[in-house]
UniProtKB/TrEMBL annotation:
It comes from the Bacteria. Residues 39-236 form the Thioredoxin domain. Keywords: Disulfide bond, Membrane, Oxidoreductase, Redox-active center, Signal, Transmembrane, Transmembrane helix. Pfam families: Thioredoxin_4 (PF13462). The keyword Oxidoreductase applies. This is DsbA family protein. It comes from Paenibacillus lignilyticus. Belongs to the thioredoxin family. DsbA subfamily. The chain crosses the membrane at residues 31-49. InterPro entries: Thioredoxin-like_fold, Thioredoxin-like_sf, Thioredoxin_domain.
């Protein structure tokens, strides 16, 4: 039969247990603090050293190009042929980019469709894509003519008949019968749709919107000095 534990012995064991628990608590506290520091340092390192999101990727070879395709800087414009702001850009800003950068071989200028104003925005895009697939150089002439002859954005003016007549009146070097057929059959509807989907994926919410070497230009489309600076910065980056 076991003997009852002496009171002094019980107190000693109890004290030893408490001291042991206290040591364990302090150890766990230090461990948790150290782990927290490591986690925090890991987060900071991730923020510092994780590379920025890749620029928007474009399939440049599938787009109409103005200038040399191997130019160090590539600019993509998202536009709508019914958009008044796009008309301003095409007539006032794009010519400056052409003269200063495209003609010198420093910039290749591309266009993608973001038709959203009216149903004939898509019709005009279908016409332009048809011209592009027949003749890249003719596309840019037709591009300028579409904006030159742009009508009120609230009016349905870009009809198949009008778009073909514009090409005929301005001697666009394409097969006009094929142009008419492509518009009416929606030959390049899926292509225009892909352009629009790309715009949405890239968070484009207005036209014109420019991407310079995959990076969105967030300044004003009519502010040429700011656009020029962005191009120069991109060129400087390519030289490094």
């Amino acid at each position: 039969m076991s003997q009852p534990m002496k009171k002094s012995t019980y107190k000693s064991q109890r004290k030893a247990e408490q001291e042991k628990l206290e040591k364990q608590r302090k150890f766990m506290k230090k461990l948790m603090w150290g782990t927290g520091v490591v986690v925090l340092l890991g987060i900071i390192a991730a923020l510092i050293f994780t590379p920025k999101a890749d620029p928007t990727a474009f399939d440049y070879e599938q787009l109409p190009v103005l200038g040399k395709a191997d130019a160090p800087v590539k600019i993509v414009e998202f536009g709508d042929y019914k958009c008044p702001s796009c008309q301003v850009f095409s007539q006032q800003i794009k010519p400056q980019i052409e003269k200063e950068y495209v003609e010198s071989g420093k910039v290749a200028f591309y266009f993608m469709n973001f038709p959203f104003i009216g149903e004939d925005s898509t019709t005009a895009a279908l016409a332009a894509q048809s011209v592009y697939h027949q003749n890249n150089d003719a596309f840019w002439k037709y591009f300028d003519i579409l904006y030159k002859n742009q009508q009120d954005e609230h009016t349905l003016w870009a009809t198949p008949e009008y778009l073909v007549q514009l090409a005929k009146d301005n001697a666009i070097d394409v097969d006009l019968d094929l142009l008419k057929k492509d518009i009416e059959a929606g030959t390049y509807a899926s292509e225009v749709s892909k352009h629009k989907s790309k715009a949405i994926a890239a968070n484009v919410n207005s036209t014109p919107t420019l991407f310079i070497n995959g990076e969105e230009f967030t300044g004003q489309f009519g502010d040429y000095p700011s656009i020029k600076k962005a191009i120069d910065d991109a060129l400087a980056g390519e030289d490094k």
